[in-house]
What does this fold into?
Amino acid sequence: MHITRLCIDGFKNLKKVDIQPDPSLNVLYGNNAQGKTNLVEAVWLCTGVRSFRGTKDRSMIDINGEVMNISLDFKNRFRDMKIEFCMAKPNIKEKNCRLNGVKLKAPSKLFGNLDCVVFTPEDLDISKGAPEKRRQFADLCVSQIKNSYAKVSSDYEQLNEQRNVLLKNICAGRSSADELEVWDVQLARMGAYISLLRYNYIKKLNIYASALYNEISGGKEKLEIKYCSTVFDVLEGRTDYKEDLSGDYLACLEKNRSEDIKAGFTLKGVHRDDIAAYIDGLPARDFASQGQHRSIALVMKLAQAYILREETDDAPVMLLDDVLSELDGSRQRFVLSKIEKMQVFITCCADSLPSDGKLKGKVFYIEKGGVTER
Ligand SMILES: Nc1ncnc2c1ncn2[C@@H]1O[C@H](COP(=O)(O)OP(=O)(O)O)[C@@H](O)[C@H]1O
Ligand SMILES: [Mg+2]
It folds into this structure.
């Protein structure tokens, strides 16, 4: 799929942006703090997923303005589509989202239409940083191909927090341990579903990522990415999350109850699982060099895009925010060669404009929230 027209007005500092991107490569360059990432973020909002940089609703509209309007036309495999996303002060909770002119109940209903993969400098640390980042990555990836997943995942988080409150109350003698039963049955069912979907996703991710890594390392190193469950010893070959996996999950919660009560939180569960990368059998988190971490991040992101393309039969739009200039020449060329057939937006500073004369596409210049084609 590819974006054919993008209009943004009043989103943060962006003013009267109206561009017709190239179906393949688009380079957006400008000095710092001119609105490059804001533009990427505006596109991302149209995917129906929360901001990748955690922008709050109240920070979305221009501080000096009253309204923001985003209008994005794109083509998927079948037809022309249009997404509109509008907000106005003071009722910022009332977001007006439309898909092909039809009003939607919430921005999350946009989900599953425009597919994007966003890659930022923070992602370069994915194999080095906290497990939470890797869980978020897995959750986003899974929800991009499985519509019902995002809701289960957010319900799980809510339920887990409520269970933690209850654990603290039990510890303080304000509640009885019997009250855990109802929570645990629900938590086990959701946790089993999340475990299974994440596990299957990471298995697929590993196939793509290890092949790409083999290429990027010139066949010298072998990458393996594995899902590490805190609940299940074995997930391979298991499919029945409703009975089989839920049962084991519940047994695990029950076994750990007294520990959980002492700790005041749930010690085992999908909220504590991790995704581990190994290079030649050694855990990357402890042993990989900075260059290896970057290569792992690259191939994970590329694998995410490939899986999306495989599952939806349509290539996602790639958003590379400030990330290309962080990579050395050979890694830059590698990434670009792997996404040649997709629409790509690359943001960079004026002085790191990719100088490769062969690059085909459009170049846009951003200054003070205004965009002009060069
Ligand atoms: N709600 C807002 N209203 C107006 N300007 C904003 C708002 N939020 C952020 N900005 C401005 O956006 C600019 C940063 O944009 P950003 O896209 O992050 O820059 P960069 O080009 O470096 O990626 C800053 O100048 C900041 O003041
Ligand atoms: Mg930026």
Observations:
- The longest strand covers residues 67-75.
- The longest helix spans residues 180-216.
- DSSP finds nine helices and 15 strands in the chain.
- The radius of gyration is 22 Å.
